[in-house]
Amino acid sequence: MDNKVDVIIIGAGVAGIACAYTLAKAGVNVIVLERGKYAGAKNVMGGILFTTILEKLIPEFLREAPIERFIMEHKFSLLSRDTELAFSFQTEKYNQPPHNHSFTVLRAKFDRWFAGKAEELGTMILPNVVVDRLIWQGEKCVGVNSRLSEGDLYANVIVLAEGANSVIAEKENLKPFPREKNMAVAAKEIISLPQEVIEERFQLSGDKSKGNIPGGVAMEYFGDAVQGIFGNGFIYTNKDSLSVGIGCTLKELVEKNINPHDALEYFKNHPCVRNLLHNGKTEEYCAHIIPEGGYGNLSKLAFDGLLIIGDCAGLVNTSFFHEGSNLAMASGVYAAEAIMEALKKGNFSRKTLSSYEKKLRNSFVIEDLKKFRRFPGLGEKCPELVSEYPEVLAEIITRYFEIGEKSKRIIEREVIKMSRKKLGILKFGKNVFNVARAMGWI
Asked: Among 48, 175, 240, 334, whose Cα sits 20 to 30 Å from the Cα of 356?
């Protein structure tokens, strides 16, 4: 193996592989260094893959990739201690390809397949490789120092795609060490159930499934799902398993002394959730961190001889859309395009490679991060949204629909009086305003 190549990518997640695939397709000599046993061995996400960028890279992916289910229904629930207020959305349009570009996957399977597609084009992926540090000549990054027997490796451009746990980027002072309020912790289990049980329990009728990929549901839970912390619980259906998890801000977990595993157990045992998991067997448990600083926490992404992409760059849509995989892949493609431009010029300075940052700014990636730039701070500004309002709203709705001997007019008056007292009109109005700002509506 030559110790000098065109590009070295550190990390074989979806951002790194999208970058490698794009470069290899253009004939660029690429090496991907992955610390896991294989691509996907250490990669974790909630479970929904957004495929707009993947479809451009590999148009036939639906016929080849290990997809679990397409998302035919979205359900959002607000939980109190014993009540669920839910909104569900589905449309026949999502039952047809491309299925709103939303699919459940198991990363260990999907990433391995995606990496294999890059290898078919000539990418060399080296697993079980730990990178200790970067090699610099002055201010230019020229290589990596790893524990390979071949010694140091050199390249014209190094791409950091090491994920949210960006040890190298932080060690090399390429990005600030994240603050607790800018990080979320997710804990997740894969719970196996027979396919027919999943389809009956979640009402996934066969006639809604088109082609070889069955339909599934994405369920998001807020409020008491995570004990009133700013975050959510989720259930995503796979073919014969469920992805069940929670995600909460690290700051609140620390302040309330809640262990992520305990938070997940609390969610799984909520009276509105536990029956959905009945008789399921936990096959896998994993946890990971998510960068949630958003637009206001982005730092420089292009350097002399080096680019930062994906979660490592903080490119995650922190709103309730929970988009990350599509942003990661897009950043990998834009980085590859910038590198190819630099290769043509024979110039790998920050000035040349900064076209990557320009491509990001002109795309949906930065546009969406900018739109939702106030969302990361919403939990601190309006803690009542998830700590108090779910219980109050559950009480109001329960009272409103009670059957008794009081007239509906009297019940309505009592509910209005209760709402004014418990929600506080001025405070509630202020919180509605803050939510609207966080969503970028005003």
From this structure: 48
Report pLDDT digits (tens) over 280-320: 999 999 999 999 999 988 989 999 999 999 999 999 998 98
Q: Which two tokens stand for residue 61?
A: 């992916």
Exposure letters 142-174 (e unless 16+ CB within 10 A, then b): bbbebebeeeebebbbbbbbbbbbbebbeebeb
Q: What pTM does this model have?
A: 0.94
Structure tokens that stand for 192 in this block: 């196996």
Separation of alpha carbons 80 and 228, rounded Å = 9
Question: What's the CA gap between 318 and 368, in Å, rounded?
Answer: 10
Q: For the domain with range 181-291, which CATH number is right: 3.30.310.180, 1.10.940.10, 3.20.20.300, 3.30.9.10?
A: 3.30.9.10
Q: What is the DSSP string of 328-383?
A: HHHHHHHHHHHHHHHHHHT--SHHHHTHHHHHHHTSHHHHHHHHTTTGGGHHHH-T
Six-digit token string for 245: 């998890």
At 294, list the tokens: 């958003």
For the chain, helix, strand, coil in percent to 5 are 40, 25, 35
The answer to whether the CB of 359 falls within 8 A of the CB of 337 is yes
Residue 228: phi and psi, rounded to 5, are: 75, 15
CA distance linking residue 99 with residue 94, whole number of Å = 4
User: Which residues are 134's β-sheet partners?
Assistant: 144
Ramachandran sector of residue 58 (left: φ over 0; alpha: ψ -120 to 50; beta: rest)? beta
SS3 39: coil
Residue 159's Cβ-side half-sphere holds a number of Cα atoms within 13 Å equal to: 37
Q: pLDDT (tens digit, 9 = 90+) per residue, 121-178?
A: 999 999 999 999 999 999 999 999 998 888 899 999 999 999 998 999 999 999 988 8
Domain boundaries, the chain: 4-67+107-178+294-362, 181-291, 377-438
Cα separation, 37 vs 243, in Å, equals 22
Cα–Cα nearest to 131, from 140, 141, 119: 141
What would you report as the CA-atom Rg of the chain, rounded to the nearest whole angstrom?
23
- CATH class of this structure's domain 4-67+107-178+294-362: alpha beta
Which residues lie across from 102 on neighbouring strands? 50
CA dist 45 and 311 (Å) reads: 11
- For the residues of 206-242, what is the DSSP string, one character each? GGG--TTSPEEEEEEEEEGGGTT-SEEEEEEE-SSEE
Q: Do 185 and 248 meet the contact criterion of CB atoms below 8 Å apart?
A: yes
Burial bucket for residue 63 (CB in 10 Å: 0-12, 13-18, 19+): exposed
